[in-house]
Amino acid sequence: MPWSFWEAYAVKLLILGLVLAALYAVARRLKGARFFARGVDRYVTVIESTMLSQQAAVHLLRVGTRYLLIGGGNAGLFKLAEFSAGELEVP
Are 67 and 85 in contact (CB under 8 A)? Predict the structure, then answer.
């Protein structure tokens, strides 16, 4: 005997729910993966970025043991300043 409309609808909703739950579980697991690793083992790390206008921003980068203050805008990127690890207090 074929299923009624509502039984088929309920089965489809159940399958859709299971697929969404599986995708959510995979996304949570990938979020913890090291694809977008940040932290101590990275050679270049963005410490902070601040937008000055719609076209300009200032970025503080850690490169090894040095810190670079980089300005960026429509004209490109420019090194504004360079600090050693002892000259700068970074949390």
Answer: yes
